[in-house]
């Protein structure tokens, strides 16, 4: 609940799922009810008096001196942000297994006491040091199985006992359909993995959330409850539609691939998903046309 007093002896009360954080009002999908009324009934003072002993004073911790661990965590996070700010490229050679060369547009600066390691997300080989800065100096992973070739790179930064990680999205050069098919076949093995993949794709586009959404009794509720997985997918879909992101089109291509095989579609697509996705497709088309 958020209460603040307005001019002309009025007050506004916001009730709902959002808390008083930047993430709640900037990133998350929240549901709030707004009430406006006389300050004598709804104002800050009246609300505090009505709560009486139910309220508890919050003691902020801001302004305290950072500990050595907090300083180390901040240093690693800043370093990973700098690494992530530089575009990364992968060039594929061969039709499987592939030789994969990886490089970055800019060379990252070293930091005393900090070690950097990186690897292709699905491959086991770990490379010490920063990602090379030019294609002629690229690091090449040899004979990588197709199902392990993805555009994601895991970067790990360590400073003593403190560790931070981030995942980079590289630009794939020389990509081909067979690789994508191999990756899909490797990951989508059942309905639960299908729902997780859809949620992950929307999250990578910046519209997902770790929070669970209420499932309800509609189309989504039927198949999500049956699978017991990815209740947050509905919220991620709602965000993607609201922002008009092209992640919906990316997900559409995966669904079309699965639906092209009747047996696979029967095993992977949850009950009622066709109906849900038809509604999503129509809503997405409206957003692209500028409709409401």
Which terms would index this structure?
292 residues; alpha+beta; Immunoglobulin-like; 3 domains; four-stranded mixed beta sheet; four-stranded antiparallel beta sheet; 11 helices; 40% helix; flat; PLD phosphodiesterase domain-containing protein
Describe the structure.
The chain has helices at 22-26, 39-42, 44-51, 68-84, 177-187, 191-204, 219-227, 233-243, 247-259, 262-268, 273-289; strands at 2-6, 10-16, 32-38, 88-93, 98-104, 115-120, 127-128, 139-144, 152-159, 162-169, 171-173. The radius of gyration is 24 Å and the shape is flat. The two termini are 30 Å apart. The protein has eleven helices and eleven strands. With 292 residues, the protein is of the alpha+beta class. Helix 6 (191-204) runs parallel beside helix 8. The protein has three domains: 2-54, no CATH class; 68-174, Immunoglobulin-like, CATH 2.60.40; 188-289, no CATH class. Residues 207-228 have low confidence and may be disordered.
Shape: flat
The proportion of residues in beta strands is 15-25%
CATH topology of the largest domain: Immunoglobulin-like
Sheet/helix structural class:
alpha+beta
Number of alpha- plus pi-helical segments:
11
Number of beta strands: 11
Structural domain count: 3
CATH class of the largest domain: Mainly Beta
Main sheet characteristics: 4 strands, mixed
Describe the strand arrangement of the main beta sheet, using strand numbers: 8-5-4-11
Overall mean confidence score, pLDDT: 81
Indicate the radius of gyration in whole angstroms. Answer: 24 Å
- Contiguous runs where pLDDT drops below 50 for at least 5 residues: 207-228
Under the CATH scheme, the architecture of the largest domain is Sandwich
Report how far apart the termini are.
Answer: 30 Å
């Amino acid at each position: 609940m958020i209460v603040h007093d307005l001019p002309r002896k009025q007050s506004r009360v916001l009730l709902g799922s959002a808390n008083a954080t930047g993430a709640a009002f900037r990133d998350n999908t929240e549901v709030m009810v707004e009430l406006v009324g006389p300050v004598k009934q709804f104002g800050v003072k009246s609300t505090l008096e009505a709560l009486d002993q139910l309220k508890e004073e919050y003691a902020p911790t801001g302004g305290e001196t950072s500990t050595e661990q907090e300083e180390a965590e901040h240093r690693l996070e800043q370093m990973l942000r700098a690494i992530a700010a530089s575009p990364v490229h992968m060039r594929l050679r061969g039709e499987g297994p592939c030789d994969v060369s990886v490089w970055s547009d800019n060379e990252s600066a070293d930091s005393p006491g900090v070690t950097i390691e990186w690897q292709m997300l699905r491959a086991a080989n770990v490379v010490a040091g920063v990602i090379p800065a030019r294609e002629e100096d690229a690091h090449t992973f040899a004979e990588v199985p197709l199902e392990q070739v993805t555009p994601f790179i895991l970067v790990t930064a360590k400073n003593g006992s403190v560790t931070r990680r981030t995942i980079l999205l590289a630009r794939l050069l020389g990509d081909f359909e067979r690789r994508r098919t191999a990756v899909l076949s490797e990951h989508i093995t059942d309905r639960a993995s299908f729902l997780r993949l859809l949620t992950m794709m929307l999250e990578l586009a910046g519209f997902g959330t770790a929070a669970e959404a209420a499932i309800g009794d509609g189309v989504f509720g039927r198949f999500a409850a049956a699978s017991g997985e990815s209740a947050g997918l509905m919220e991620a879909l709602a965000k993607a539609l609201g922002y008009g992101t092209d992640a919906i089109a990316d997900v559409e291509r995966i669904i079309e691939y699965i639906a092209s095989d009747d047996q696979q579609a029967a095993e992977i697509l949850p009950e009622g998903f066709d109906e849900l996705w038809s509604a999503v497709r129509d809503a997405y088309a409206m957003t692209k046309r500028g409709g409401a």
